[in-house]
Amino acid sequence: MSEYSFDKSVDMFTRATKVIPSGISGNKNPAFAVPGTFPYFAERGEGCKYWDVDGNEYIDYLLGYGPIVLGYNYKKIDEAADKQKKMGSAFNHPTERSVELAEKMVEIVPWADWAVFGRNGSDVTTYSIQIAREYTQKRKIIMAKGAYHGSHSWCTPGHGGLIDEDYRQVLSFTWNDATELEDLVKANEGDVAAIILTPYHHPAFADQVMPAPGFWADVRRICDENDIVLIADDVRAGFRLDIGGSGEYLGYKPDIACYCKAIANGYCMSSAVGRDKLKNAASKVFFTGTYYTSAIEIAAALATIEELQATNAIEHMMKMGTMLQEGLKAKAESHGLQVNITGPPTIPYMSFSNESNFRRSQLFSGEVAKRGAILHPHHNWFLSYSHKEADILKTLDIADECFGIVKKEFGS
Ligand code: PMP
Q: How many A from CA of 233 to the centre of ligand 1?
């Protein structure tokens, strides 16, 4: 094992805390991972790997928390962005790229009739609930307990700067419990504008949960019977389960779907797509931002979607992800350790079955990082098209060694 140190990361963090509140904000703060045994600052990336500021190399399964779906520094996407850059990006008006991308989104998502573009996931989840409120003229929003829909005040899991009113119209129910959902709708009869759900449940600090058989069908029925807009928050899973949206993979059709992360392979882009019946309401909501129409990122999104289609990247990621999931389970068992492997193969997560305090996960992830791979202890992982068999095999070798360390420290 080559010596991994995080000295520069730690020094840079100290520097950052002097001029940036908390040094690194949100879930990229070291406290969210394993302080001291995880990198804090990145330098460059290539394919499925990146290097941190200390020069340590990693096979990456976090991929910027999802956006890098093809690979870091992916030539075709950067070329498309560069081509647009030469012509200009932030104009007084949108460019033809906006129309082309909207046409592309409507083409790939079978039930969608229109598309809009923002920059971050929260832009479009918030926009979607506004459309639902405008369309239904109702107030309440229902989400699953523990789900993440962004950093805006109606849905942030954070604490600072919030007032009770921010959450007042937002209700929640237990994922997969359609009866609880229906009861909640009944208790708020005539006042529920939208149900917003991720395709499957992927909370942080917990195992992932796939939809129970019939759950999505029940949700759809409840929405139809009560004039509620069904919003699929595909910000995290979009473009990793099915090119037509995660609903195609899991068997549901929402009224609006939100995308971000993987849509432009790391260029900051998000999109909401929706049904015709909501188009008028969508046009009434004032949806704008200085950079919403900037063309470089839109060109990158177009190129990313075309490349995902041309390469069958999702199929490849499924194969690699399955290899990783099955390999990890087998390696853990060979050490007498029980692990939970949850989520779809392209967005896997692993926890240790007999603990609730993440100490095994943190030791495991820290040791894995020191050997050259990023398997986050508290957040789901991601596969990219650039992960090849050799990367998975190397990761499994690293994991094997690190399971041994966990076994030695904790016994089982
Ligand atoms: N919804 C989901 C499911 C997400 O995973 C995220 C980001 N992690 C968001 C919404 C918010 O996206 P953003 O951070 O780009 O605003």
A: 8
